[in-house]
## 1
Amino acid sequence: MKKFILILIWITMSFSGTHYRYENLRHTQNDLFAVSGTDTLTIKGCTLTVNTDIFVNSDGIVNFENDTIILNGNLYAWERAKVRFNNCKILWNGTFVYQYGFVVAGAASMVMDS
């Protein structure tokens, strides 16, 4: 029997700064995907299909490491947010009529080491 794992990644403002880590998952994310505050999210070695926008703000950090990401939405980073792609494959759904991409503003940064 296969286990179904649902990850709703919705991290709100926190004062302590938590590091969330997911490894080696095959997962489809249909719900809100947001990181903010001083929290860090690391996704490593995963095949992740994201059917929504990704929001990273207010000093939030997202690290993608050795992942295959199928992004059917946009990635928004602002307010000193940090997004890092390390050795990742990023794919967009080419059949959708709206253009997908990255929006980085307000002292946010995005680094791609691939």
## 2
Amino acid sequence: MNRLTLTRRWLAPIGCILATVYCATVVASPPRVFLLDSEQLVRARQQLRDGDAGLEPALKDLKREAHDALSEGPFSVVNKPATPPSGDKHDYMSLAPYWWPNPDTPDGLPYIHRDGERNPAIAKLRNREDLGKMAETIETLALAYYFTGDEKYAARVRLLLRTWFINAETRMNPNFNYAQGVRGHNTGRGQGLIESRLFMQSVEAVGLIAGSPHWTDQDELALRDWFSEFLNWMLTSRIGRDEGNAKNNHGTYYDLQVAVYALYLDNTDSARQVLESVGEKRIAVQIEPDGRQPLELARTKAWSYSIGNLSGLMRLAALGERLGVDLWHYETEDGRSIRVAIDFLVPFGLGEQQWPYQQIDGFSRRAIRPLLRQAAVKYPDAPYRAQVAKLPRIDASDRANLLTPLP
């Protein structure tokens, strides 16, 4: 009998008082999460219980956001005005964001590409927008549950997860066959899997509410079945393999998803196989010896994509630590590495140099903060801690104060 089963058998009949005692006794046990820093979560929760006033503004803001999130959703993939080519509304369907009607043809087909310019008409299909709202909502609610122990948050997370993944009337089929279709070109493509990265928030949420009587063994088994099927689709379908072969940020986030879902399913061999390939397949290909990421710099939002891809690589490095795969210090003979990619971006993030590449929707120095804070922990011999101090201070109510360790 596993620990979760024992926990639920005790908590369900005893009620809220002993549930509170139980939560206090396991505070030192890190939650089973993959993208969040589990040790920091434990540390922050203990600090709050010890009366750390410095974290109270962040908790207060999280609770306010969680209160609002209780009325969000539930969201379902079946709630869209169009029907996928399969004829099944349980199939996820979205349109590529940077493709627009052709002004030179009467029917607007085939669509034309305008990189970085989001077509607002894509929102009408709803699936992508609802998936984003679902991911944001369950993250907020699950964190609120973890830090407060209030069961109403866990109950709402369960409803949202069951609606999207489990309930027969509303669940999504575990495939992405019709994601980011381009009208006049295709009905779905590998690039669409950049949207499925939002499913990783669901896996994180389950880890945060584990132990709640509202998340049952049956719920857990059903969600694992869904992710097992989806991971198999990612690995074996033509569309999934196309995304896995992508050389830019799409390939990075494909690897990150595969590793996270495999770890969630206790398939450490598959996760290790992916992580062991990241050095040669991603870092060596995506990063130049001087730290540039050419495939991201070619975009019209070069700063955002450089930050985003490097964030994915750093998350892969953090996962690698779990399995003894050191990507933090991976370096090719000519000097390509995560660290040199960070160093390339730092002068621009600190405002010491002007960004020389395209960034059509505004340049945000704030975007580099999470990377620098993580780098300061992973590379204590480097000047990243001092560089973090040069960035504009974040507000005391910012959620990052709960989630990100200070160097």
## 3
Amino acid sequence: MTINTPIYLDYAATTPVDKQVAEKMWQFLTIDGQFGNPASRSHRYGWQAEEAVDIARNQVADCIGADPREIVFTSGATEADNLALKGIIEVSQVQQPEIITCMTEHKAILDSCKKLESDGVKVTYLQPNGEGLLTLEQIAEAVTANTVLVSVMAVNNETGVIQDIAKIGAFCRSKNIAFHVDAAQAAGKIPFDVNELNIDMASFSAHKVYGPKGIGALFVKRSTDNQPAALIHGGGHERGMRSGTLPTHQIVGMGEAFELAAKQLPEEMTRLKALKEKLWDHLSELGGIHRNGSAEHCAPGILNITVDGVDGETLLMSLYNLAVSSGSACNSASVEPSYVLRAMGISHQAALNALRLSVGRYTTIEEIDYACEELTKVITQLRSMNA
């Protein structure tokens, strides 16, 4: 196949906005569309915008099995994570509140926890096993009388590992402990029902599911006493939890994206898993390539591998016809291995040599075939140079 632009295999980082979503958003931007402020209750423009927001709120809620009144719109999953953790601590009646989380969480969780630690909150960071999985026993052992919140990611953004959210949620509910889930990589990609999973709060981001960047949501269960305090004030929007003029076009885009994803979910899961496994089957034939994270408990679209005998950054730079991501983080003076892989017990060098490939809605079988050829060629070349 002819390559004009790199083949995109980084869907876990972000997804392109679906054209149907973009067309829907455009209707809420210009003078000939529904551009009004949803908070303007005195005229038709505001009523139209408010109705559009209500429809989108229902679309998001339907995708995750929630009541639309339980959806709080935010600027993305990062803000939703911050609101959940910091907001719950602020309303906690416990003298010295404690949080339990996992070492492989997204930075939005880990950095929020660091901030709370500086304020005197105790945080327990649980280490997953070599497959990236936590056990319920670990959480149970970490719980104390002061534990007010457990936060565990549904699908890891680097490895695709899926935690047993339902079991953890049931345990937390039995102990009357608030349970938060970062579900940015889960909604619209795997079956995800907040009630079946016993979740009190969950964070979502539209741009992970073919919606626009800059919009997300926090699910907050209405029947629980654990209602987080607001971080942003100024008007009391979103049940008082998130003030600010609602960006109608972005919210409409998120709603449309979530509805599309929910409709396509069964077929898309099967298709993406087949594409990913084809990629893995081919790569594994090269030898010296290891799959990072559980193969059984893994999202259909994410594959994280370590390539022996090849420097990860060199490999990444050599794959100029493929858009993939490294398992490393670049700092000002050095390249650090993925903290997620290191927490799983993967060695420093193996983590440096890691590569994440993620497929999505627009990935074709022809692109996978080309990617297999390109990866084989580049890895073989680099290994021969290092021999």
## 4
Amino acid sequence: MKSKPWLAPALIWTSLFAHSSQSETLNPIEIYTRCYTRMVRQVPNEADPLFVGVKSGTKTAIDACIELFDRAKFSPAGVLQNRTSGEAKSILRTFHNLHRTWFQSPIHVNPAAGDLIRDAEEAPLYFTRAAFLPEAKFSSVVTHGAGLSGVRDQKKYPNEENPFLAQRIVSYQNDYPYKNETDLLLIYSKTTLENNSFVSKGVDVMRIKPSQITEVGDLVGVKASQSLKLSSFRPTIRNAGGAADVTEAQKAMLLNFESNGHFGGGILGSQAFLQNNANLINGTLANGFSDINRRLAARVFEDLLCHQLPTLTTEDVSPEVDTNSDYAFHKQSTCMQCHSSIDGLAFGFRNLFLFTSGPNPNLNSQNMGLNFFGFARLPSSTSATTFALKTPQGRLNYRERHSKRKITANFSTLAELGSKLAAGQDLYTCAAKRYYQFFTGVNVDLNLIPTKNLDLRHRNQVLKLGNDFKQSQSVRTLLKAIFASPSFQESNYLTEEDL
């Protein structure tokens, strides 16, 4: 592992600090300037009370750094206490942009209605909420029980435009039947039951109020996402094969279909996280080892725990090797090292599937309104015969990166899965590693045992930060420890051995 600093913005660092191979401890003003430029992305104002306090010696640089972070603190309502402060908005923007980078699948905005109704940045919002809402524990990123949406201020706040028009994702054409409309119109295939059989009623249009549209502008807070129920809607299922229990499940979902639901476990049950990472296409149900959301399961380990799979050993999975299986990966222990972790977790997502609201997903051919994509949950029972309708039985199975402790636990809901992840260590060590890298530029590889003393020193620092973070559950406390660390306070970030 070779440690290299991320010195952005480079021109600021070059002008403020003289680097050399011989590490030197920065003076208090230099330490405060370093944390300020990282969080605000500007040089500090020398007339600012925090700068003055550090310069005069009445305030330590570490206290000033953490008070600077506090300027972006949320109120109990989840909104910046300093809502009109450009500095507070910059700090919040810096951290939220950092949290966005923690997910492999890119956050993409498409012209369908989904990203107008559901915040495409929902997944990183859980990290941002945990960082700036004082009463929120960090574990809430995988235990919070509701979906999230950003609170954003347009430049004209509080006199803002209709958010549908402000986003300019799509405009109604002149030949559009509702060309003078200023609200989002959502299309969905309407279905009713007659004589216990489905009867199509064509396409219906639902008006979405401006208050239901994803906000645009500067991020200033986090709020719960809104429910969006469709009346008399039957999602298309492609691979049911006429199964009677699937038909009955569709009937049970027909009225007041929740199209923007959250499924528990914070990020795990987030609509945006599910849609960004699922590998099963629209209308396809999970079907045992043949069809499951393996990519989604892998992303849980990689995006939330910083795992580079596999973590299991050949000895761990040898009881699961089946040379008579119909699946090739069951026959090799090297394959099962990954599949044992991924497939067990994916089985816990079995009752979730991707749907589309309209009969035609091609936006260019729509002539009534916009289509909507989302995840829905099938009603499940122990007596069901179809795999996707059986009560979810997932298994969390991995080894922690540092301790090598084997974690094996069953779960039936995503809330249970989130609680089990929160009880482990890797969730916190992963986040500590990422914050440490952002503030020091040192990317500690948790998957390798260092061979150099300096690399080992950084690794041990991150492991200690992660252990303490699990206890404190406070991003604020974690950052204060990073600001106080030798790596942050040394001129060369301790990226080279002292000569």
